[in-house]
Amino acid sequence: MTAHDSTTVLGDTASQASARAKTAGKADDMAMLRTAAEVTRDIGTARPDIYWPDMLISAAVGYAALAGAILIDNAVLAIASGIVSVLALYRALLFIHELTHIHRNALPGFRLVWNLIVGIPLLTPSLMYENVHTLHHARTRYGTAEDPEYLPLALMKPWSLPLFILVALLAPLAFLIRSAILVPLGVVIPPLRKLVWEKFSALSINPDFRRRPAEGEFARQVFWQELGASIWAIALIASVFAFGWRPLAIALVVLSGVAVLNQLRTLVAHLWENEGEPMSVTAQYLDSVNVPPPSPLAVLWAPVGLRYHALHHLLPSLPYHSLAEAHRRLNERLGATSTYAEANHPGLFVLVARIARSTMVRGSDRRAPKRAEAA
């Protein structure tokens, strides 16, 4: 490394550290928060005429394309069908995010039907996200060690990013083993049941997160969802004896594609620059990401409103179909130089490059935060 390169790296480190400190310590922009609440009062109701067709059509296309990937003999067409299946099932699966935020009486029957046709068949029932994701939105938990969905990825070592993506490849197999073997064994082995619930029953990325026991109505939902997922997982394994390994193997490959795509989206959902301190709502917003139009591919890798993830952190209960209109109104009211505009980013690859640069700079700094080093 030349003297010039060394100076550049040191400058980048100081600049990024200064930017992180500025964001983490940022007080709430009350004008932005008030405006966000005001301009969205008339679009806060979840519309069943949008939710139901979107979810059902996405699932139908996904399963039809998966059948094509399994049954078509032509390799090119089978691969193309598999890609369509990944994208459609990914969209259907991401309605799990909406289930954690919409009012329980907003869409009668939607949670049950989603679990029956998407959550359980994909071995990701809503119990894996409900009462977990809401902790990520808790005012005093976001970005701290108690946040199940946060790691300071931008402050970790460079090899952490590819590992973060690649581990998702094994998620479908892990879910299959969990539901087919570990959950049934847990019925007769209480310590195993406790371990599976605490460590392997949440869509979290924080390895230190432990789930608390389910209670009340949620505990009853967990019982039926676990029962359904276990029966389905055992049936999938048994199907090998009737149909051979090929159908199950192809299905697992497609689901691995869904998991990797979701992990890539997760990687750019935030800037991941908080070192564990509690943050204001505005600071949480600025550590989150909007990828608004005209970014052409965001509708595929961040569907169901997730291209407006920063806006979602401002208004968690706003239904996904209202986020684009809310974004338009806020841009119009607040302008391009506002705090609101600071969370808008141009696209996936720019965000990945930003986080990768940060890890490379941070990797040369031996004073990395303890939480990041431990990870």
From TrEMBL:
GO terms for molecular function: oxidoreductase activity. The chain crosses the membrane at residues 50-72, 78-100, 112-129, 163-189, 222-242. It comes from the Bacteria. Keywords: Membrane, Oxidoreductase, Transmembrane, Transmembrane helix. Its EC number is 1.14.19.-. Residues 83-336 form the Fatty acid desaturase domain. This is Fatty acid desaturase. It comes from Croceibacterium selenioxidans. The lineage of its organism: Bacteria, Pseudomonadati, Pseudomonadota, Alphaproteobacteria, Sphingomonadales.
